[in-house]
Amino acid sequence: MAWVLTWVFLLWAAAVGVSGEDTEAGLCGLNGCQAIDLAKRYTDLTMAKMMHTIKPEAMEDVFESMSRLEALVRQVEDLTRDTGSLLQPVWPINSGPQRWSMCAEGPCSCTMETKFVSCWRLELLNHVPRKQQIPIDTRSLELGMNRLKFLHKDSFNSLTDLVELDLNENQLELLPNSIFYDLENLRHVKLHKNRLLYLSPGIFQDARSLRTIDISYNMLEGLPGEAFKKLHHLYNLNLESNAIKTLDEGIFYDLNNLEDLNLSYNQIKELPQLVFYRLGKLKSLKLSHNALTRLPYGVFNGLTSLKELYLDNNYIEAIPTDAFRDLINLTFLEMTSNRILKISYRDFINMGSLQSLFLGQNLIEEIHNKTFVGTPRLEKLYVFSNRIVTVELAAFSGLNNLSWLLLNNNLLKLLPNAIFRRTPSLLRLQIDSNKFMHLPVGLLDELKKVEQVKLSMNPWHCDCFILYLTRWLHNNPDKIWDRQPKCRGPGDLGGKPVIDMTFNSVCDGQWASMTKIQGRV
Fold this sequence. Notes:
disordered N terminus
């Protein structure tokens, strides 16, 4: 370590032009913390100069030294956090008969009837209030919306009645390993919107009554395998918006009562096959906005209680065979914004409870017959913004309860004439922003209950074949949603509303051509 510190100081001295004698004197009086500070301030400047002066063959040694220095900086920073925690004051815990009246003498708000102490938004900087006394029977303690950076490991000792602890929106970078020691009745912990870099392996081991933990919006890059051991009562765990890259396969094994797990907005690339294996009571699983490219075979096996599954905004290319076979109670499946190429009936088999399926913004090109036959209760089907060219006649077979169908922003030129005969409950249909020039006669007549239809942004060709759509628009003016469809052409008909087309305006040219008369269109 000594040679690294020496090297750092010499680099700094060279960068700022300090003489040899001054360098020697400065080095003798330099401590580790000062060296690290100098390293942070002058590393970029030094590296810029070195790139112009160091021989190429020596660069490998330079980068190796820089790597060691970065590791040293991290170690010192960790030590600084640990030391900072130890130096924090511990507020007095009052067990006397006047404890609540004495509590009220401090800056915090104290309510004896509910056993509630609130130090919310007091602009606390580096420590808890020095003059604040906390009653020993406090049940709820609120420290949110301050600027606390450190807490002493004994901050909450003896508060055995504590049920709720709120530390949200502070600047905490580290939680001492024993911070929750003796909090046997603690049920709810809020730690969101801090700067936590990591969790100690046994951080929650003494708070086994925990029901909810919120560690969202921090800077966690990983989770120790022992982080949630023996938390058998936990039912809500929020880890959203961190920087988690990997998950230990056994990380959630003891959470057999967990109902809500949020892992959205992280950097998870791979899911261990058995990571959710023991979460038999899980009802909501959020994995949105990660970097998943695939789903391991059987990763959702055993999740028979799951009702909501969020997989949107990843890079998933395919749905594995039987991926959702155990999700018999799933009602909501979100897979928007992935890279799924194909779907088939095997993907959604045995999903009799599914009501909402979101597959928009993928790369799907075809929807084959009976693709959704395993989802008889489906009410909303979103397949917008794909590359769909073909939808087969029986693609929506069995969807008697379907009320919303979004097929917009695809490459469709044609739909089978009787395709909507299989969706008698359809209330909203979007086929806008496709490649339709005409619709088959009678296509929309099957929609007996429809309330909204969106048809705009298609290249409608206003010749004789457009008159079916014109007639339907006249008969259903209150069902057109957003805007009236317009003609793309031909000729001067381009830009005119389809609803304004008449036989004389679009057909007389065709009759004229049959009799070799100059046509109008």
